[in-house]
Amino acid sequence: MRREADMGTGRLKLSENLSLRSDDGNYLFFDNTSGDVFKLNELSYEMISLCDGDNSEEDVIDKITANFDAPRETIAKDFNELADILLGRHYLVLV
Length: 95
Known about the structure:
Number of strands: 6
Distance between the termini: 15 Å
Strand content: 25-35%
CATH topology: Outer Surface Protein A, domain 3
Structural class: alpha+beta
Shape: globular
Strand order of the largest sheet: 5-1-6
Number of helices: 3
Order of helices and strands: EEEEHEHHE
Number of domains: 1
Largest sheet: 3 strands, antiparallel
CATH architecture: Alpha-Beta Complex
Low-confidence stretches: 1-5
Helix content: 25-40%
């Protein structure tokens, strides 16, 4: 779990043993070490794909807000929840 001070300003990156794939409206997240595959919705896929080590968390939230019809507060809450889960599983790392 991230500390409050890290939220918003930190830069997240997908772990090196993971990959994302989008194909015909199917959004998949692969753990290349364990072989686990997770199906994502479009919003989660977009959020994770923006976690490239270059975008800050605020950048990700701003870009998602610009592309999806939802209030920024809702997107920020959803992103923070997703990021905390993925960080806890070491699927995302702080850079």
